[in-house]
Amino acid sequence: MVTEPVMPLAEKLKELNLEGTHRDEYYAWGLHQIAKAVSFLNNDCKLVHGNICVASVVVTPNLDWKIHAFDVLSEFDSSNPDSGGPMLQYDWLIGSQYKSMELSKSDWALIRKSPVWAIDSWGLGCLIYEIFSGAKLSKTEDLRNTAFLPKTLLPDYQRLLGSTPSRRMNPSKLINNSEFFQNKLVETIQFLDILNLKDSVEKDAFFRKLVSLAEQLPRQIVLAKVLPMLAAALEFGSASASALNPLLKLGSWLSVDDFNVKVLPTLTKLFASNDRGIRVGLLQHIDQFGSSLSSQVVDEQVFPHLANGFSDTSAFLRELTLKAMLILVPKLSQRTISGSLLKYLSKLQVDEEPAIRTNTTILIGNIAAYLNEATRKRVLINAFTVRALRDGFAPARSAGIMALSATSLYYDITEIGTRILPSLVVLTVDGDSDVRSKAFEATERFLNLVKQGFGQVETDGEVSTSLSSTNTAGASILGWAMSSLTMKGKTAESSALSTNITSLTVTNSTENITAAGAHEIKVSKVQTDNVSTKNITESSVPSNGWGDMDEDNSADDDVDKDGWDDMESFESPVPSALSRIQAAQQRPVQAPPRVSSTNSVSSAEEETFFSKPPGNSGDYLAQDDDPWAAIAAPPPSTTVKPLSLSGSRVAGPTRVRQAQHVSIDSVLGKKSEVSGRGRGRAGPMKLGAQRINRSSD
């Protein structure tokens, strides 16, 4: 039955070719294992191996020594004269040089009176002689030659080969009493064997000194024995997070192929650990093994567990997860990047920690080369201009400028002129000197790109709007920095403008009445309480400005919904207002509705006048955002007592409750009849103070 691959001890010792202290340490560990196995057979099982020598010991791939060749294994029972079994029948299989004096004489009566370990203790002595001499034992008399034996082992060696069977040393005492087995290699392996029984303090102390200790031990033994034990302890949970650093340090001594076989599978499984300390350790050292991970392993096994760090309550873990993605992104599929990673990054750009928000901008700039063309168009400008450049934290704005410069080849001329340059020019008057200097440099860079694009008109005859002829694959923008990228910096003018636009209603008033009878009626803005309240309620709902995103980040979500789809583009107010003015100039001028001199305005004129709904805010924006409003003279203030004509009802979608109309004749002092606020008609209007007589009713 084959249980595992092994190699004969004699051949393995020649292959290792250990010398000096390293040789003695490894031999001590091997003899410790053999003595422990022989003690188990003799003391616990009451069995005699009968043929302990170099030929009966094999070595596993982990360099452990094990006993085999149980050809003459026999049960020992001193009270049973028939005990001995195969040893009595097949003692000829044992070499004469390995037989003890009583066995060579076939004195079975003496053997039964002797301790159960007597024959195997003699065999241990023969094994010690052969491994230290480096030669096979040829005759029993050679056992007297002890010149090559360690002095710490010599007394025990002599007791194992005692001439009297009853006085030979028990193998169990050889393990416990010999100073030879007390060395660093044996103690290290024994500690790892019983790691589950150690408390956390002992474990941390051991793993802290393990790296320096391993440098003093035989390198082959550490890589073949200590490293697999350490990996197994981490994988099965007996080791703490402090064992991760020794594992990576010892793993760095391996070749690439051996590292992928012995260490990498364990590291991959550790990403699923709930131990926050292990997760932090993996992220801190991911640069040491991240390049060895295959694309399939990263996409299917590592990233699903690593992504939990993006939403962890610990800011330190969120930042480490963010930085780790710079190494792993090249191994992710486009579906994972667009469908999962960008969603997490959009949330981190509104994180409460400034360092995380800044580093998110840096990461997006660094991974731009790994995004497809459509994703870059949707993500980069929104992430850098709408958020980074408008942040209140100076390093965040600097990171946004640097990210734009590093990804400049991905933008066409139209995007540069309409979206990037307007955002950069604002920062040339920033309060931070570093931001100002970077803004000037970036502005000059993008202006040169636009000039180069339009300069091709003279040679090619057409404008080339595409500048992304090459990419900056993996080009680093700048080192990780502290930053903040939040949407809190939205200007007060923007919110005031949105409030005014959505809360416009119309009413009529009389202004600029001239003696020639020319009348001009203007529409003025009045904010109604119900609309304003609605606007305040809607604006108070918290939003991160990136559109709706599912909290569970399910894999079934559409890959395009990464948080940048609904990003609002902030345009410069001057060009937009100018375009409205130009549009207004192109509209035909209409004469204002004329007011009849018969104390009322026709219903047709009223309907025409009040038929403009407030929801269509295009014309009102032209008035609201008038670039000349700051220097224009205020309109004359006229105060007229509001009156309403009888029988007048306002028609149209504005639904003003009670239209108030003014008769021109009443203003000019002519006799007219007007209707007051109440129902019914009143008499002719009288000037001056009047006493009003009212009954008690």
From TrEMBL:
GO molecular function: ATP binding; protein kinase activity
SUPFAM superfamilies listed in its UniProt record: ARM repeat, Protein kinase-like (PK-like)
Low complexity bias spans: 585-595
Source organism superkingdom: Eukaryota
Biased composition (Acidic residues): 548-569
InterPro entries cross-referenced by the UniProt entry: ARM-like, ARM-type_fold, CIK-Related_Protein, Kinase-like_dom_sf, Prot_kinase_dom
Polar residues bias spans: 529-543, 638-647
Record region (Disordered): 529-571, 585-697
Protein kinase domain: residues covered: 1-181
Protein name listed in UniProt: Protein kinase domain-containing protein
